[in-house]
């Protein structure tokens, strides 16, 4: 049978208003990641510290002799600090191929010929990263606060630390924004997800090592802004109203984070285009 | 989709595009009416750049463009919602099977999930990939990849299709089927389309109008039948003597000639001069005419005349 006998018909149904295509990209990206067993294993692993901390909260609330493990803002800050390992792996696992794979398959021409602009495309990809990063940072930390209320049976701890929930939201938001955009920018620079992962790990470890050398030479940790991971630790301490672990000022830390985000946005703006022009 | 405007689907005025300092399009003014329009030109003439400019992928240095009544500079999203684009290069969303890929493209264009999935199945059958729709696109052959690019461009029922070299890399049978599909879409399904190609037979078979680009400029444009029609005659000519020198004489006399078969040349004689002018020139140059036969003008003749190629 000639192939054109299977006829074509016009579409008379509804169409979504423009501006929602990013949700399609985000949903597809999340479903794609959840279909990978290794990634699901990583997510489960990333939630184990939550159960450990929840057990501690239970014991602190029910065993008076264990007052040494009574909840404090530092406990929540430390919890988020420990999650950094999972954040590192999830960032690579989720983000390395998000744009690089599209570059490899020339998918940008397909995407950008549809009624969505570059920022919607980037927004959709970023939403995938944000979903998983917040899933292992903001969600368990917030749930720990709720668990503490449930186990203690009162709001005493929360009411005396009202900044805690906003602090968790702001810190995890900053962490997600910085790491997500940096990873997307790196992903847009290559057609190989593997290379992007190596590049990301290289940047994290190299800047951290460089900072270590500078500390050894100057005997001062004021240059923590050199390394994104140290920078995030420092801003986290300040957000949780704790003394900063490095000597860098809050202003310098903030400026370095804003500069990192600006650089990532600049790279994305240059690289995510419908046509690659080589002159 | 909403009814497209009755007038031209694309209007371009004084469009210039540069890649760095290299001009890709220079002062292009063209009108693309509804139906099937061929965008014809040799490689590097600016065909793909023109489509990309209309899609908003490249920013023009100068000029205005409107598609389906919308200004490209003002309403790119509205235009792309009504457009289907089949890129020249191999392009797909990685990690998806064909039906998921096409449905995903439908959703990106605004179709609800269920409708997008239903349309994906229908369109994949239409383009001849019904049996292979659950295979990962990355395992497809070149011909199948061309078909799936057409499917993703069609899934949201666009008013206007941009097809960039749709038969590239296809075997003869596949090419024939693809041309049948394009012809069917344009002539039976009411889909306006612009077919960019350097293959004259493809354009001649599927399109009613043609816009010829050469060296980043418009060489000629209009209905194919009209361009092939009344402004002159075409002859098949075989001569004994210095053919190269005689071809130069023909060119100097305003007659375009190009080699057809071994020793036969096709000569376009403009206006009403007819065969007599050919005989007169041959007599003057001392060349014997061994064979002279009136021929039907083809798009190839129009193209050769427009771009001045032998």
Structure description:
By secondary structure, chain A is mainly α. Chain A has one domain (19-271). Chain A has helices at 21-34, 37-62, 73-82, 84-104, 107-112, 118-136, 138-152, 156-160, 164-187, 193-218, 228-239, 250-271. In chain A, α2 (37-62) runs parallel beside α7 and α4 (84-104) runs antiparallel to α6 (118-136). The longest helix of chain A is centred in the first third of the chain and has 26 residues, at 37-62. The N and C termini of chain A lie far apart (48 Å). The model of chain A has no long low-confidence stretch (mean pLDDT 93). With 310 residues, chain B is α/β, with parallel strands linked by helices. Chain B folds into two domains: 10-225, P-loop containing nucleotide triphosphate hydrolases (Rossmann fold), CATH 3.40.50; 229-307, Alpha-Beta Plaits. Helices cover 36% and strands 29% of the residues of chain B. Chain B is built from eleven helices and 14 strands. In chain B, α3 packs across α4 and α3 runs parallel beside α5. The longest helix of chain B is centred in the middle third of the chain and has 16 residues, at 172-187. Chain B is elongated and about 75 Å long. The mean pLDDT of chain B is 89.
């Amino acid at each position: 049978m000639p192939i054109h006998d299977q006829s074509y018909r016009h579409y008379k149904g509804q169409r979504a208003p423009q501006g929602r295509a990013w949700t399609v990209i985000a949903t597809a990206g999340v479903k794609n990641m959840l279909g990978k067993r290794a990634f699901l294993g990583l997510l489960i692993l990333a939630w184990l510290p939550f159960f450990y901390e929840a057990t501690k909260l239970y014991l602190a609330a029910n065993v008076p002799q264990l007052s040494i493990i009574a909840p404090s803002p530092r406990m929540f800050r430390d919890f988020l600090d420990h999650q950094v390992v999972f954040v590192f792996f999830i960032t690579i696992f989720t983000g390395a191929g998000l744009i690089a794979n599209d570059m490899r398959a020339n998918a940008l021409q397909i995407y950008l010929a549809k009624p969505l602009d570059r920022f919607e495309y980037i927004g959709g990809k970023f939403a995938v990263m944000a979903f998983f990063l917040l899933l292992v940072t903001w969600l368990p930390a917030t749930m720990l606060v709720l668990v503490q209320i449930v186990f203690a049976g009162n709001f005493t701890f929360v009411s005396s630390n009202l900044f805690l929930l906003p602090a968790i939201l702001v810190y995890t938001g900053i962490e997600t924004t910085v790491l997500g955009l940096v990873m997307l920018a790196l992903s847009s620079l290559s057609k190989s997800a593997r290379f992007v992962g190596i590049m990301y790990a290289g940047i994290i470890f190299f800047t951290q090592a460089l900072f270590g050398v500078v500390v050894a030479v100057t005997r001062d940790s004021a240059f923590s802004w050199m390394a994104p991971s140290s920078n995030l630790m420092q801003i986290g301490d300040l957000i949780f109203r704790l003394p900063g672990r490095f000597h860098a000022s809050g202003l310098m830390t903030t400026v370095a984070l804003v500069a990192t985000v600006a650089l990532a946005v600049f790279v994305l703006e240059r690289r995510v285009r419908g046509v690659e022009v080589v002159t | 989709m909403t009814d497209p405007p009755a007038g031209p689907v694309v209007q371009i005025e004084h469009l210039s595009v540069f890649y760095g300092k290299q001009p890709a399009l220079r002062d292009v003014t063209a009108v693309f009416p509804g139906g099937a329009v061929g965008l014809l030109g040799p490689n590097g003439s600016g065909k793909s750049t023109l489509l990309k400019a209309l899609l908003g992928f490249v920013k023009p240095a100068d000029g205005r463009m409107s598609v389906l009544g919308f200004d490209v500079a003002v309403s790119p999203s509205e235009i792309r919602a009504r457009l289907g684009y089949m890129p020249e290069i191999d392009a797909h969303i990685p990690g998806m099977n064909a039906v998921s890929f096409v449905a995903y493209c439908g959703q990106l264009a605004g179709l609800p999930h269920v409708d997008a999935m239903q349309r994906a199945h229908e369109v994949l059958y239409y383009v001849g990939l019904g049996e292979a729709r659950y295979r990962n696109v990355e395992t497809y052959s070149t011909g199948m990849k061309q078909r799936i690019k057409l499917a993703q461009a069609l899934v949201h029922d666009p008013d206007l299709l941009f097809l960039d070299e749709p038969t590239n890399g296809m075997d003869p049978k596949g090419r024939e089927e693809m041309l049948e599909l394009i012809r069917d879409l344009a002539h039976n399904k009411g889909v306006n389309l612009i077919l960019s190609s350097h293959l004259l037979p493809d354009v001649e078979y599927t399109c009613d109008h043609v816009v010829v680009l050469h060296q980043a400029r418009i060489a000629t444009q209009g209905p194919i039948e009209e361009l092939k029609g009344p402004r002159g005659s075409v002859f098949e000519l075989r001569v004994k003597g210095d053919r190269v020198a005689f071809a130069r004489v023909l060119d100097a006399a305003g007659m375009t000639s190009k080699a057809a078969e071994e020793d036969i040349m096709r000569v376009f004689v403009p206006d009403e001069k007819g065969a007599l002018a050919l005989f007169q020139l041959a007599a003057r140059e001392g060349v014997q005419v061994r064979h002279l036969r009136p021929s039907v003008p083809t798009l190839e003749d129009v193209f050769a005349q427009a771009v001045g190629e032998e």
